[in-house]
Design brief:
This protein has 64 residues and is of the alpha+beta class. It is built from 3 helices and 3 strands, in the order βααββα. It has one domain. β2 and β3 form a beta hairpin.
């Protein structure tokens, strides 16, 4: 099974943030993305890693 790949717009809608916020996360290195054609693409695994890191930061850095 192939891994799902999302656009910046899809990630923004999924996380209920602006597209600019998603691009900022990409540019800062917090969210890993691939630049294909004229747009960034984000793998499901990269999104899950990003969410996990955010949860750990929120919980005081404790591993889950």
């Amino acid at each position: 099974m192939e891994e799902q790949i999302y656009t910046v717009s899809e990630i923004a809608k999924r996380l209920k943030v602006r597209e600019k916020t998603v691009r900022n996360w990409i540019h800062s290195g917090d969210l890993v993305a691939i630049y294909l054609g004229k747009e960034y693409r984000i793998r499901e695994s990269s999104l899950q890693d990003f969410i996990r890191k955010r949860e750990q930061q929120r919980d005081g850095g404790l591993p889950t």
